[in-house]
Amino acid sequence: MLQAQKVRLTDFLDERSAYLTQFAEDANAEFDKIGENALKELDEASARIMENLENRMQAFEETAEISKQEIEKNERILEEFEDKIDHDRNEGLFFKNLRQKAPQGQAEAMLERQKIREVTKESAGSKVRRNIYLVLMSLLLVTIGNAVLATPEVEWRKVAALGLIFFGLLAQYIYEQSLSSTTEKTDKKNE
């Protein structure tokens, strides 16, 4: 009798142990699934944000290129107009037509080119672009922190790759900052 109760108790304990083991395995699998889904959603959100930022940067660069082309076109039209005025003014005057263009017009053209270069530098160091770099760097820092702190097994290759991208963005941000500061110094000197 005692032996039969012992066997029943052992069977009951084995059954409960197997049930608890299965329950723990199911809970661990569910936690892993939730973690993987969260990481996947974070990666997808990061990819969407990066794509939106790239689209905005591309649109900005296209706008800058169109503006540059319009400026060049206007310069050509202005030069043609000045040549036509000079020719029309001197039409019929043989000796006056032989003289060279006034150097004053060339100096004005050089000043205009200098202004265009300054505007280009100002647009390169614009606040919008610097803010985009700051957003990207903060997003990378959050992702690196999440990769290091949230998971028990750290994927060092991923962390290293994200770190390299972060330092590249940091270098570009510092370059943009230096461009804008030199432009501000030049503007103050000109005033």
TrEMBL record:
<dbReference type="GO" id="GO:0009507">
    <property type="term" value="C:chloroplast"/>
</dbReference>
<protein>
    <submittedName>
        <fullName>Uncharacterized protein</fullName>
    </submittedName>
</protein>
<feature type="transmembrane region" description="Helical">
    <location>
        <begin position="156"/>
        <end position="175"/>
    </location>
</feature>
<feature type="transmembrane region" description="Helical">
    <location>
        <begin position="131"/>
        <end position="150"/>
    </location>
</feature>
<keyword id="KW-0472">Membrane</keyword>
<keyword id="KW-0812">Transmembrane</keyword>
<keyword id="KW-0175">Coiled coil</keyword>
<feature type="coiled-coil region">
    <location>
        <begin position="50"/>
        <end position="91"/>
    </location>
</feature>
<keyword id="KW-1133">Transmembrane helix</keyword>
